Amino acid sequence: MLNRNGDLPKPITKELRARSQMIIQSGLVVFCLIVVLLSWTLTLNQLAENRKSLFNGLNREQCNLTSILAENLFQMLEQKQVIELFALGWLSNHREKSLNDITRFLYGGRSFNRVVLYELTGRSFYQSSPHRRIQLDHRVIKHGIHEMAVSGKPLVIDCPHDSPGLSWHIPILFPLEQRGKIQGAMLLELDLGYILNLFQNINIGKTGKIMIFTDLGEGVARFESGGLVIGNALARMSFPGSLHQFSGSGVFTETGGEYFHLAYQRVQDYPFIITVSQGLDEFLSEFDTYKKQQLYILSVLTLFCLVGFYYVFRMINRKHQYLSALAVSNMENNELIVKLEAEHQKAVNAASYDALTHLYNRRLFIVLARKSLTLAKRNGCVYAVLFIDLDRFKTINDTLGHRIGDLLLKTVADRLVRCTRKSDIVGRFGGDEFVIMLTEMSTEKDVSPIVEKIISVVKEPCDNLDGHQIITSPSIGVAVYPRDGEDIDTLIRNADAAMYKSKRSGRGRCSFFDASLNTVSIQKFELEQRMPSAIADDEFVLHYQPKVSLQDYCVVGLEALVRWQHPDYDLIYPVDFIKNAEESGMVVELGNWVLETVCRQMVKWCADGLRVVPVAINVSPRQLKDKTYARHFFETLNRYELCPENIEIEVTENAFVEDKDIVIENLKKLFSGGIRISLDDFGNGFSSLNYIRSLPISALKIDRSFVQNIRNSNNDNAIIASTIILAKKLNLIVVAEGIESQDQLVSLKIVGCDQVQGYLFSRPVPEKEIREFITSPLRTLPA
Amino acid sequence: MKKKIRAFFFFILFVFLGVGGTVLAESPLENDPEDLLYFSLIPKKNVDQQILELHPLLQLLEEKLQRTIKIIRPQSYQTVIEGILSRAIDFAILGPASYARARARDNSVEAFASFAQKKGFITPRGSYYNSVLFTLQERGFGTVADLKGKKVAFTDPASTSGSVIPDMEFSEYVGGSLESFWGTRIYTGSHDRSITAVLRRHVDAAFVSSSRIDEAVHKGRVRPDQVVILWRSKPIHRDPFVFSGGVDESLRNQIRGIMLSASPRLKVILNEMQLAGIVAVNNEDYQAIHDIVAMQGQRRE
User: Fold this and answer.
1) Under a CB-based contact definition with an 8 Å cutoff, are residues A91 and A184 in contact?
2) Are residues B186 and A198, on separate chains, in Cβ contact within 8 Å?
3) How big is the A-B interface in CB pairs under 8 Å?
4) What pTM value is reported for the model?
5) What are the tens digits of pLDDT across the range A149-173?
6) Which helix (H) or strand (E) holds B232?
7) Which residue ranges in chain B fall short of pLDDT 70?
8) Chain B contacts in chain A segment 516-555 (CB below 8 A)
9) By C-alpha distance, which of A324, A482, A376 is closest to A1?
């Protein structure tokens, strides 16, 4: 768990996380509490609202009821007007007419049972039905009339009843007024049956009550439980003392302690108050049940909620603990990983770099060199591998000690690095073995100067190596890509081989794996002196290189190349001695030796039963200037009983510079004698194809420099292509020299080249090795 | 709540249309009093139902008498008593006690006939019935003592079986006044309302006429197994048809003749009324109740 900068998480991050965790938890607690609180508040509020609305409904209902009942009672009592009219009429008519109309009206109206009319004295002068056993005292009536005169309101008479304990009617005394003057009184008995019928269908609940009071607060009738309560129970009716208004409502309490809601209204113009009430316990019973249910549900939900939250917290805490443990373990892992990475890096470095010199070790060198070579295959540049060994290092180590040896190695390493470019790869393979790859050089010629420089720099004395001055020298072997190998292993092996060759030839030397590249500073004079005896002493040897047809990869001929096996200088190549031989004229003798040797070899191969192929020999211009050369040539062939097809000759364009006529004469003789003649190193010289047309030749050998540049120069490609086309027109066979890679092979085959010769198939090798090519001429392409 | 509102609405209609309307339509002032006979009856149950049941009999009387019979709808027993006494009502069905009370104030009031009933659920066949203390099986009252301090329904202070007899006989039975025995006494105005009050559990028990229980059982208002009778009075003579003092003898005889005749039509009518017949009664038949009423009057004094 590295952060963006790759640092490990610091303890402060952990602290921050813990704090944010705490904030989240506190937030959750607060949220939970708010939710619970809110639901309780809302529910309680809702319940309160419901209760209020129920009360409002009850209040409205009761007020409406009282108002209607009061109005009804008023209407009913107003019927007394008619009776009053009859009575006053009767009085006006001097009491002559019958009062039966009153009686009949009474039973039409049905709300009053009985009418009694009184004079001012209190004595009755009419009653609708016979009097009861107990009659009202006339003084009571007289007093009543007096009272009414004062109050202007009817009176409810508390009369003795004729049936035991029961008052089934309410006697009300009204004044008989005429022109504002009281003439008498009228007692109307209000039938409670009427009240009962009026109330009977009103559903006001079990505890609901409708009561009629006089305005003095005395109970007149009480309706409850579907009937009227009269008698002593009526006397127990308590009148809420605070009903002063015309109408109103409110919650009251009985002496028993039960609360009830009551609405009241006074009856207009009459001394009655009507109340409607209902016990709150009953009224709210449904609501209370509902409320209890709601609160119970809410409590259960709250409990669930709290328990749920508790478990969530526990889970979060646990998760947090796990995460913390995980974070700690991650941190430990990371530390371990970083350590391991460091160790790994160290190990890699150890595996890749030389601890002493900090140069690449063998492993990394090979990796890097291999990578460079893949690049080389594309860019067509020349690469070189230098295998360097310090001379006398073992002795230095043994005599001066390893410390000094190590210091020397470090110094040499520094010097090597200094001598090379940054793009070059410098490595130490162990001991005193250094390997360098020189990269991206345009030609093989660029290699030598660097190698020379390395030799001279390393050779310089190493001062003050722990108080010692040491002089050492390097032995260097060079392998060149692609000539000496296309892969790094081959190149190193060949460079190593070349290094041993250097060691053998003395200290501070350099050798190319391809010996032809070695520049040996052999004393010209010495060679000149030695050459005649060398021929006599058989110091010269012939090496052979096969020519391969591109059509079927069959060996179609060999070229014989001379080498001087000098006792002091190892193998000397023609480049080091031919020029001398030309100058001294020894070349003629050498040429003859070559011819004789080839012929002898040919005979031997034939004797050995081999199916020989033509062998070409190089003929120097000097030889061709001799008029007898052609004759001599044929004589030699004859002597060895060889056919002209067995031997071919190769001439360079230089041959046509001096004594051109003699040369051409010789060549024509040879040509006509059946000898095939090739023009060697074509392209470097002056000759144009037009000129060549006149020459007695049968084949062109394109110079190796053109062939080597095939891959990276389109111009060279074009030159070769056009040359081949023209040569074909002249019926000349085209042979390409110095072919080293498959790419070159492919390119040449495409442009129509007939034969190739080069390291791709074989470098020039001694007779012993070339036999294999003769015995099995069909070659396969090297992998 | 809705129920209440609906009941309230009907109540308003009843108050403003029902009552107000009947006041004018039935006012005797608008008719020729000479041709009309006024009839009323004590509200033992739903008055309209009672009138409907009596309608064939009254129709028979109208036809035979060639007079129109006008029915006065009573508000209470007292309405009928006062009506008979004021002679605004010519003849009526009173309860025995109502009759006794009316007779006490005017001895020209005369009982002349009463229905004879068929055997009912708790009432024997004939001209007698009982006042019963009725409660429901499920209320769990096994004896009269269980009802002490409870709420009881009476009918009308003037009702024989619903008030007068219980007041007298039941007081003797429990050995004390009704007031001290009962917690609350409710007067419902009719026997049927008393039964309803019991069924609705507004009250714990009710004093009602055994005939009303018969009918309630017969009509399925109450299941027989629900009915518990905890007390039963001595037989009470059935409600008498009563003439007011204003009815002359010839009319009395005419009416007697029609109602006590053995005419097949009357038989059919009575059969439809689930009655055994009409029997002639006289004042002496109600002597027992006269005594009780008199006694109550004296007790009051």
Assistant:
1) yes
2) no
3) 195
4) 0.52
5) 888 888 888 755 444 445 577 888 8
6) strand B227-232
7) 1-34, 299-301
8) none
9) A324
